[in-house]
Amino acid sequence: MAQIIEYKNVDIYQKEQIVLKNVSLTVQTGQFYYLIGKVGSGKSSLLKTMYAELPVKGDATVLDYYLPKIKNKEIPFLRRKIGIIFQDFQLLTDRSIFDNLQFVLKATGWKNKEEMKKRISEVLKEVGMGAKGYKMPHELSGGEQQRIVIARALLNKPKLILADEPTGNLDPETGNGLVDLLHNICKNEDTTIIMATHNHNLLETHPGNVWTVENHCLTSQSTQTSINSTANCSNTVEAE
Fold first, then answer.
1. Res. 2: pLDDT tops 70
2. What is the three-class DSSP state of 25?
3. Strand order across the 32-36 sheet
4. What is the structure's pLDDT at 110?
């Protein structure tokens, strides 16, 4: 089991304000992690550092990229190895689902039309949306749109998927179905998934490794699967 992320004593800021302090964690391949915390606690900020959207202070390595010294020209190559699932979908509303996915493939260097068509068909089938490629985003339900977002995240066969509150805008039944799907992807494709959520019920129905964000600190609350992972904050910072 390989290690794909390591943070040692990392501080995360939004502008000049501290978001998370003294974060240390390790992430292994093929594991499912929950990032639990209230809205505004810093979950999204931590995920953003992993794809170099926010800078870090400290030692942080993601998929062999050392984040404190990553160059701007290297960031697109890091992001090609990561699938990102947003709560608000971020689908292009002026084109079909197929064209949304083709746009991503073209933007990440794919050239062959037949290979693109084949890959789009594969990921749509994988998320149970094989017959929906011709649809426009507004013709799909919220749950269906989120499945398309998962398909988009899978296009380049990433080693790591970051899911930022993917069930936040969905009803419980639809949300549970999507978490089922993410767990199956983690298991069947040996893909690491880190999912930010404030829904503690998911921990009972879909066990995984749990990190908690509170008072600017990240702690390892429990590990519900067999894994040697750690996450800690040795210096707790009081809430402002």
1. yes
2. strand
3. 82-85, 160-164, 192-197, 32-36, 209-214, 217-223
4. 93
